[in-house]
Amino acid sequence: MTPAIVILLLGTSMSSNKLQDLYEEYRSTYPRPEPVETEFCEEVESLLDSEGLKSETYEMQIRRLHERCEQKIEAGLVAKAIGCSLSYARRFSYSNERGAFQKEWSKSTQNEKVSPGARTKIINRDGKTCLRCGLGDERELEVHHILPVSQGGTNEDSNLATLCSHCHEAAHDGSKTSGKTAYVEGNFYEWTQKAEIAPEERDLPLDTGQKRISDY
């Protein structure tokens, strides 16, 4: 092994150990010490830069951070060290058995994403209104998988429908990430027709013809 490689490996090992020490100090102190947090973030930046990962995806950087520390790092600290959102940092974890990994709910969420082009296409197809309550505010409209991805549903047009945020949640029986539906398979359009929207769920009178729901 050449001296250059030895130095590189030694430097990586030392950096990894320092990260572990800094994180242990960080998590053992409350309230969290800002100087330690700052030093940890600087050490992460140095590590990623030395390994040529600064231009890689957030996912690769987050995985490497967990692996270098050999434990799950608090999502808030990961977000600050990597520069990603807190919600994205929460998608990943670490275990001794699996190493760094993406959580199952995150994989499901990624699979359920619809491209901007497909979203526009489906919303236009459905008359730019929610198929359940008739809301016509495009800012509130979402594309719903009639058969959830977790149950084998696809992103084909026939499996996509336009719902407002409120009705989308109702379609999933209260939770958009549950993988469940409030209707039995094959009865989605029947469910939208039979659904009764309470007056208090709208912010316009019922006789205006605009069935806009309120914020919730």
Lay out the secondary structure.
Elements: H1 3-27, H2 34-50, H3 58-69, H4 75-82, H5 86-89, E1 92-95, E2 99-102, H6 104-111, H7 116-125, E3 141-145, E4 160-164, H8 165-171, H9 188-194
Antiparallel strand pairs: 1-2, 3-4
Helix pairs in contact: 1-2, 2-4
How would you sum up this structure, described in words?
The chain has 216 residues and is mainly α. Helices cover 45% and strands 8% of the residues. The chain has a two-stranded antiparallel ribbon with strand order 1-2. A hairpin with a 3-residue loop joins strand 1 and strand 2 (99-102). The chain starts with a helix and ends in a 22-residue tail after the last helix. It has helices spanning 3-27, 34-50, 58-69, 75-82, 86-89, 104-111, 116-125, 165-171, 188-194, and strands at 92-95, 99-102, 141-145, 160-164. It is built from nine helices and four strands; from the N terminus they run αααααββααββαα. It has two domains: 3-102, no CATH class; 111-208, DNA Binding (I), subunit A, CATH 1.10.30. The model is unreliable at 1-16 and 198-216 (pLDDT under 50).
